[in-house]
Structures
1.
Amino acid sequence: MAVTPPQPLLTLRRVAKNFGGVRALRGVDFDLHAGEVHALLGENGAGKSTLIKVATGAHTPDSGEIIVGGRSLSGLTPALAQQLGIACIYQQPALFPDLTVAENIGLRLEHGRALRRIDWPARRTQAATLLVRVGATIAPDAEVGTLSMPEQQLVEIACAVGAGARIVIMDEPTAALTQREQERLFTVVRELRAAGTGVIYISHRLEEIFALADRVTVLRDGESVGTHPVAAMDQAALIKLMVGREVSQLYPPAESPPGDVVLALQNTGCAAGGVRDVSLEVRAGEVLGLAGLVGAGRTELARVLFGITPADAGEIRLNGQVVTIASPPEAIARGIAYVPEDRRRHGVILEMPIAQNMTMAIHSRLFPGAWLRDGAERTLALDYVRDLAVKCAGCDAPGGSLSGGNQQKVSLARWLATKPRVLILDEPTQGVDVGAKSEIHKIIRRLAKEGLAVIMISSDLPEVLGMSDRIGVMRGGTLTAVLPGGSDAHVVMATALGGVT
Amino acid sequence: MKKYFRELSVTAALLLVLLLLAVVAPAFFQPQPLLSLVTREAPTLVVACGMALVIICRQIDISVGSVFSVCSVAAGLLAAHGWPLPLVILASAALGALLGSVNGGLVAGLRLPSIVVTLATMVTLRQGLNLVRQGEFVNLPDRVQWFGLSQAAGQWTLVVLALAVLVALGLAMRHLAAGRQVYAVGTNAEAARLAGIPPQRVTFLVFVFLGALTGLAAVMNIVQSPQVQPLSGAGLELKVIAAVVVGGVAISGGRGNLWGAFAGLLLLACVSPALTHLHIEAYWEKAIQGAIILLAVVADGIRQRRGE
């Protein structure tokens, strides 16, 4: 078929998907033509990943239609998607590190009985041919684990090409690449396009979208806010589309002026943690929001401050004194508390009673002589249950029996019990329902008023704008700007993206 | 009640077996044979207490049998050299702790999987002992047997000692912050670390503890006979792991307690004498023990499924 088919390769019509109470996609339309690069853009949590997973059959949409090559599909599975020529290249290549390149490609492309004889020469030849086609200079016999990230991506692309993929989806492929590696990847993408493949390209880097894409679709809060030819757009227009919503007025206002500087960082960095050259001051009684994209280094900075990956460069001052923080116990002793992002994995121990969860970080203080005092534990737990309005069957109920918002309160209680001076909150309201979210916001504001220095990492832009007295923006492992509270959403977004300022 | 359902059901099963024996074979309850049975299990109980700690910490130690053998022989030699018994006990426990610290150091320090590390130390210690001793028995001086007491007094001493270890550790796991930390690390090591509990140190220490208890148990075993068999610990690891698992300590860590392990050990120990009294061939012992273990694991699996 030399003629481009009139219908799109892939059409998604009114696709909707809910996870529990969260509406990840609310009726999104999307189409992809042969020989185009169609960029997908949106904030963290806008629904890009969900949309991709619908297109690859990993998620079944609750409603809506998926049309591939003119055929409407009711039940798209990953296997069927593969048969239809849909391939997805993830940011972290999903290859087998201990097998060679040829074996990896063979595993993807050869289908047959488990006991068939493997034609090794054919497998190697096939791999070599495909690698040449994607412009890679990788030996088919190299073990994948020894390859660099961009080389592994090329192997993934070779798999896609070898499978005869008509639709190639790339999820932030350049996040880990250097400039030169990027250029090479772009060349491959352009060749794919020239060969009539449709490419869905996800990236946070606006420059790439202008360099590569033909059309761009912007998602916001699970809805498509428009598909436009890239030539008709500029960076400012794209950012406006991504952000364009009103900031809710429901956030509790700051009531008191900030006090003394509690925590001061001077060129702080940690090579192992991927944080470099951060200079920052946080005052008692203030909420410092940390904005940035996923992977910008915010959680990594928190881990440095909490001694999980201790700083190896620069200076950390607490109340004016230079300190080292080499481990979590040391951080706790110095009055730093860190409420981690993934509360189910790193925060609340689901099998443990609420009371035990709350006292976990203060064993040595609550129990001098190491003998557990159930009475003291209960009293403390009941205090926090009342104070933070934790909805639970009692202090003995296991952490896993609580809703997300209440688990977060238990996690918070554990850290408040350490009587910290600096409280680091990592995505404090992620996956929390609206009511609990506003309660947590009130608690955060109250804690600041009581004199804590609060650092709040959040990917929820309205939350950062609404809660923060100042907003630090991180990008690429360092702090790129500190903006005043109440800054314009577009400015924060643009700073986080590293585009216009 | 619901929380301790697992422990209570093992205890119920144990009582059921005892009741059955009371009806069918009252001879089982004659004091002297019963005391002998319990005495034989006393060292196993001490090791099982340590093993419960290790498994609650989401680790395993299959080298206990070899450590037990090494400590037995070492303690026997020291006793034969004329060391006083209290010193022999201390030395044996210290040697056990040292061997345990090798396991713990490799597991916690290098973050190696405990099953592989302890498999290696199990084989190494066993073969090393064979090589050095060539299977030679150690003859013990008379003053060692039953601690130099009468047999009955010695037996009671062993039983009381084992129960003392059980009660002390059982209470510690419930009432000491250290015990709580073992549970925390076994349930979610990363969350524990973020709460300021050092998981590597806790892991290291439970191995050292198990080693020390194994060394103590070795002495509790050698005082029961005039000679030290170099293979006295063979198969011990399976016995104690089985007892702990039957007693409701989850192999996936963080759940269970020593009382359950105690009930599990007694249940498994009852099988053999029960068979004798019921006139069933002894060949069935292992099969029935295996079935009990399977039943316990399946029950845990079903409970966990339901919980999710």
2.
Amino acid sequence: MTYLDHAATTPVLPEVLAAVTEQMGRVGNASSLHAGGRAARRAAEQARERLAEALGARPSEVLFTGGGTESDNLALKGLYWARREADSRRRRLVVSPAEHHAVLDSAEWLAKHEGAEVTWLRLEPSGRVTPEALAEALGDGSDVAVASVMWANNEIGTVSDVAALAAVAHAAGVPLHTDAVQAVGQVPVDFAASGVDALTLTGHKLGGPMGAGALLLRRDAECTPLLHGGGQERDVRSGTLDVPVIVGLAVAATAAVTGREERAGRLAALRDRLVAGVLEQVPDAQLNGAPLDDVVAGGPGRLPGNAHLSFPGAEGDALLMLLDARGIECSTGSACSAGVARPSHVLTAVGADAARARSSLRFSLGHTSTDADVDALLAVIGPVVERARSAGMGRR
Amino acid sequence: MRVLAAMSGGVDSAVAAALAVDAGHDVTGVHLALSPDRQTLRSGARGCCSVEDAHDARRVADELGIPFYVWDLADRFREDVVEDFVAEYAAGRTPNPCLRCNERIKFTAVLDRARALGFDAVVTGHHARLADGRLRRSVDAAKDQSYVLGVLTAEQLAGARFPLGSMTKERVRAIAAERGFAVATKPDSHDVCFIPDGDTRGFLTRRLGTAPGPVVDAATGTTVGSHEGTHGFTVGQRRGLGLAVGDQRPRYVLSIEPVTRTVTVGTAELTGVDVVRTGPPTWTGPAPALPLRAEVQLRAHGTPVGCTVEAAPDGGLVLTLARTERGVAPGQSAVLYAPDPVHGDLVLGQAPVAR
């Protein structure tokens, strides 16, 4: 099997498996006062400190959550409610239209049920949000509750200059949230240096367990809880701490960050070979997102493991099926709960027409990727595209 | 053989896919998303188009260990089946959308795409026998679906596989239960899948609006009632006419004239038909020599009746029936069979009943 879908989820690291398994064998609620509870508490707090250290945050800024979706919901809704409560004029959400659905749907829910108004950010053709576009959308900022711009896009891999965006937001007196689920471990992510107020990350994109995420939230950021109960996480998030997966998350984040530079160089080289090889066999394929060698703020302007291509005249789900039948696993980007392929909202947001948006595939590389994976794809991509084209676009 | 199993989420297509796997084929499952606004949950026993149905199909595919995909054919289905259904009613005819879906969606859009992607055939859970290119009734007479497949051509049938034709529905459910499929006891779907509340007249009124007209008695030529649109009626219909006729004898719809919006009704003896004229036929194999003695079925679940089949000068057929039939509705298919009590009645072809 050739796994080219690391952006969906990536294999668990052996050291994570060992740490989670060991912790799972122990009894103890981290909120309990006896010895077992204290041991669990110690493991959770050590994990919090390790995670904070890996990401340039203070331990008190780490809120453990159930994953990226919960962190995004908590940031958008929690910051919106708290900011509006402090000043009822703050009803605007300034959001990139290329965000993950956890952000998009939270913003739209707030607009539908909580009186919010969404201002969609203008995107560069690469999908990047520029500081100028953010400044333009914020205005004087007095009516804005929160802005949200992802660090790196999950479909096309475009990286934005989050530090510059945070500076613009703060000049307008507005907090900035960033979804860094794809960025952590692939590009340098330092919470304090970036200046953002809230940052989403999740374990299973890093070689950690599913169901473990975090929201890094500045101490001075007021955030209304979504989940009420024991108040375990700074009274912003309640629920018994899931110590085994929290431990696993911290181990994964440390590994992802310490090995990042070497891995990023290796993945970028593999990715460049993958894209060049595909374009050689399918000359009219189109690379979506930023150029492979793009630079932003002195770092990669595109995630090193990301290749996102459109194959004109072929339908993404036909390509996916044909590749799957040949043992190659990749993604069309987005699917609804019924599994019906929809044109990617990200490509649509950067101005691609529906046909291009429907004809795209995402290949994403990760820590287990090798030259053999790229070779396996290049061995079949030409005939697969030809066959999918003969099946047409399924439309008249 | 590489086969594509169309999986609705029901028990029949689940077992058909399982039998294809057992037969040693390389099977891929697809669920056809046919409705643009897919309901999350089934309402009642209808449907094959909810997210829950897609989930049921996926569960079976996962248990069988076969790849599974959802194909979005909502646009094609709307154009080729739903709009055809509405246009036929607007023209005063009574369409059969299941037959249209088999003709244009399952065995054109899906089969063409499957062949282009390298599959040899499409497997479905239809209850009909198909061997050596010959389409026959199912052994389960009550569940036989050969009527809604009668429109398929030899070329289409060459790419079709119906593994359930030689078994009863009871046996299909037993196989599903033996395999532990959760859909083993799922109720049969019925009615029109794109009208989930079952209110066909309401659906057509939403699409076509109201267009009032008279209800005229055939015997006297007098207006005996009024209606809100001819699309609310089918030839042969008795219920829901809302008439007040002095003689208390039941009235049936005899004809529908959409231009003048006239619905003509009459007593039972006036509904009889001995000769049926049709539009151009399609054949499941080589066109037979005419005239021909055969049996014809004039509606889904109708009782077949003997007939002679002759060619009409306009390219259609003239069917002279061995006994009088009542309520023969224009737009329905007249499916022709060669009776065969041993191997199952052979489907010869079909032609649409003309006005």
